[in-house]
Amino acid sequence: xxxxxxxxxxxAAMRHLSRHDPKLAPLIARIGxxxxxxxxxxxxxxxxxxxxxxxxxxAAHTIEQRFLALFGGNVPEPKxxxxxxxxxxxxxxxxxxxxxxxxxxxxxxxxxxxxIARLPHLPNQEIITELTAVKGIGEWTAQMFLIFALGRxxxxxxxxxxxxxxxxxxxxxxxxxxxxxxxxIAATNHWHPYESVATWYIWQSLSEPTRQA
Length: 213
Known about the structure:
By secondary structure, the chain is mainly α. The chain has helices at about 5-20, 25-30, 40-50, 55-70, 80, 85-90, 95-110, 125-130, 140-150, 160-170, 180-190, 195-205. The chain is about 60% helix and about 0% strand. The longest helix is centred in the first third of the chain and has 18 residues, at about 5-20. The protein starts with a helix and ends in a 7-residue tail after the last helix.
């Protein structure tokens, strides 16, 4: 989606959610327009997602910089990355598992098992299926990719801890909501087709998404 169209869609989402969800309306008024913009750097987004899992933003950033330095400061092409050893990746601070995952991703992109250029043309669930076939990419990472890389506005990441915490606070729930409770909140407040935007506002009410697998 082009940036101008994306912004138009975000404005429509703000109007829709403000009208239907009395708890979100004041948040939307206070926070203003969402700042996430789709981009086309899909391969790096996935490499970065694997590197960042379970790390603070600061620690992830340090390892990303060291990783890029291995390739002269640039994002390596998959065919370049598959020639890198696990030992080299470990030397920049990646765990054994993450090094193996990044190499698995590069291998799949390189030989076409994962056709990254096709992803924007697929429905959400198919993209999740394609991405979770890669070692180390779970449903959460695939959903973050849908929201932040592809700019899909109808994603409800029910496994996200920040989302659960924020929703518990915002809707005054006695316990941390699980998937069905979150789906019910979304349905009752008519979030569809703007679930990602509602989720984004709830994250902002706390701060940031919690990095998971």
